[in-house]
Write a structure and sequence with these properties.
The protein is α/β, with parallel strands linked by helices and 274 residues long. The chain has 2 domains: 161 residues, D-Maltodextrin-Binding Protein, domain 2, CATH 3.40.190; 88 residues, D-Maltodextrin-Binding Protein, domain 2 (3-Layer(aba) Sandwich), CATH 3.40.190. The protein is built from 12 helices and 11 strands. The strands form 2 sheets. Strands 1, 2, 3, 4, 5 and 11 form a 6-stranded mixed β-sheet that branches. A 5-stranded mixed β-sheet has the order 8-7-9-6-10, with helices on both faces. The chain is globular.
């Protein structure tokens, strides 16, 4: 059976899913056909149910949880890895300032809406373009995700707020950023198979950290190996293997909190495959 699997070209995803993409682990008869694209593109494709398995921001997933269900393996979820609101000056943004964001459907934008509800003027960009626009295009404020956490100081940008840190202090829980969702139309048997293969692939990556170096390098936005390794170390962790009880609590907490700000969230008591 062949299934298209859409995920991002970011180092944590290419590191984690290199093994299943290259059939280096037992895939239980499933042939995974990878499709790589920016996280906000993935979110938008999911509204058309274009791919049976796809990486989704949790903000997008909560609006699609009637069509998809989140697997327990494959999530980017943890501490000290949330989005950063940055500036090219030392002033705080006002309601009249435009904030560059990596996508309306991203969890980063949801957190910005929760903690800075007055910042409603937003412009969407591919996440890797935001730092450049702050440096050269006349914009003053941006929301950084992925590698931006490690490179913004080099671009002479100032930290306004670490949204993940605010979340952690308020809730004493990790921040759920994105995860791997599978279409609910597929049988439970297939859903469980895919979840097992994901876990094997991630475990293989952890046990063989250099095996995916070429694949990671070929797809990364940031070419410095040290930045890629920091990215992987931060976003691939125990929660990636299995969300666990604490991760589950974090996901349901983000769902209940975010629902107050996004009326498109679907009502579904089963957000995670059990």
């Amino acid at each position: 059976m062949e299934l298209k699997f859409a995920y991002s070209p970011c180092p944590n995803d290419t590191f984690a899913f290199h093994a299943l993409t290259n059939n280096l682990v037992d895939c239980e008869g499933i042939i995974f056909s990878p499709v790589l694209m920016d996280v906000e593109q993935l979110n938008r494709c999911a509204y058309d149910q274009k791919y049976p398995i796809c990486k989704l921001s949790y903000n997008a997933y909560f609006t699609l949880c009637d069509k998809y269900i989140m697997l327990r393996s494959g999530s980017a979820l943890g501490y000290n890895n949330g989005p950063l609101l940055v500036s090219n000056n030392l002033t705080d943004p006002t309601k009249d300032d435009t904030i560059l964001i990596p996508g309306i459907h991203t969890t980063a934008n949801l957190l910005l809406t929760i903690y800075f509800p007055h910042l409603t003027k937003k412009r969407e960009l591919i996440f890797s373009q935001i730092e450049n626009y702050l440096a050269n295009k006349g914009f003053n404020y941006g929301l950084l995700i992925h590698e931006g956490r490690f490179t913004y100081k080099q671009k002479n940008l100032e930290l306004i707020a670490d949204l993940g840190e605010i979340w952690q202090k308020e809730n004493n829980l990790p921040i759920p950023l994105g995860g791997i969702a599978i279409n609910r139309s597929l049988s439970k048997d297939i859903q469980y198979k895919v979840e097992r293969v994901l876990r094997r692939s991630i475990q293989f990556a952890i046990d063989n950290p250099t095996a995916s170096q070429g694949y990671v390098m070929d797809n990364a936005q940031e070419i410095e190996t040290s930045v890629q390794q920091k990215h992987i170390s931060l976003f691939v962790n125990d929660y990636s293997l299995d969300i666990g009880q604490e991760g589950s609590e974090a996901i349901y907490k983000l769902y209940s909190t975010g629902k107050k700000f996004n009326n498109l969230f679907r009502n579904n008591p089963e957000l995670i495959l059990t």
